[in-house]
Amino acid sequence: MTQNTAWQTAKNILCIRLDHFGDVLMATPALRALKESFAGCRLTLLTSPAGAGIARHIPEIDDTIEYEAPWMKSSAPRDAGQDFGMIAQLRERRFDAAVIFTTYSQSALPAAMLCHLAGIPLRLAHCRENPYQLLTDWQPDPEPRQTIRHEVRRQLDLVASVGASTSDERLSFALHPDDLIWAGAQLEARDIDRSQPWFLLHPGGTAASRRYPPQHWAQVAAELSRRLPCNLVFSGSAAETGLVNGILQHVRELHPAARLHSFAGQISLGQLAAIMSHASLLIANNTGPAHLAAALGKPVVDLYALTNPQHTPWKTPSRVLYHDVSCRFCYKSVCPQGHHGCLTGVEPARVVEAALELLHGEPLADPNDSQPLAQSLPA
After folding, report:
1. d(CA 155, CA 143)
2. What span, in angstroms and rounded, lies between the C-alpha atoms of 358 and 335?
3. Are 260 and 198 in contact (CB under 8 A)?
4. Roughly how many angstroms between the first and final C-alpha of the chain, as a whole number?
5. Torsion sign, CA atoms 49, 55, 60, 64
6. What does pTM read for this prediction?
7. Euclidean distance between CA atoms 51 and 21, whole angstroms
């Protein structure tokens, strides 16, 4: 392995995070550590199209390269010539070093081979097996058998191994003035008083196994409206517009006086963040917007499917709600048992109480909401 002094001279660093925007957000403290520790370095993010949309909001990122890596599940089949083209592009950029950020279930070796063929001299990643010449610096991966770390801590530990650290471990996200102006105008047009409590609800999610049932969402919204007459604003992607509209229809049947609004399929990521910055708190599944709220310092009620324990809200007030099941931590995008018990077992009344507790700054009422999920892992 190389000495940390070699990294201290690296000025042009490629950072690889090929997942969704929430995963990119959870790598931002590690990006900050690189920026602060290696004076004058320039960071280029190699990421998926889904991850690229957030890069313009992360001050630590100087440039972005989009890449649909064939070893990632979200990538479509294509000609291998595109991969050879990426190798050539990276070679032309003459990077001094590459940091490969992965979850424990992902192999860093395909990205390491990409960087090796591109002639990047320093290459760092977690690795479960001996990478030999593919990585110049690597950390043995103890997860999940020996330990479980939050995803943010995992990436901070990785860059710390080459001498990069930061005293500010918060997630990074910069709101743009034009998005804030737009959000203010939109809220005013809907007669949403920003001086009064109101909630943002995000019922969607990229993985089916991490979505709270629509009928439960409707019951949560209806009961919140009864308990605390306030505006409820829904968000979602274009693909989730039908989901949101169905929930809104059900809420109106349960509580016709509910004050409901939807931005589903209508706004950019920056506009979502600007709207979120004005909300009292967010209620969401374990998905990207939950990490966006953490980056903005917003309280989060996180409806947390027990697919994995590493992605709870980072350094922001939160309630993590789940129902314990024997099949927890399956790491699956689709519930292998078909019952979604870790979410369907979360009663809507619990969600409402958690939201009101967060709103009023009350202490935790349910120990199950606050215990680090890693403590629930079987020995």
Report:
1. 13
2. 29
3. no
4. 32
5. positive
6. 0.91
7. 4
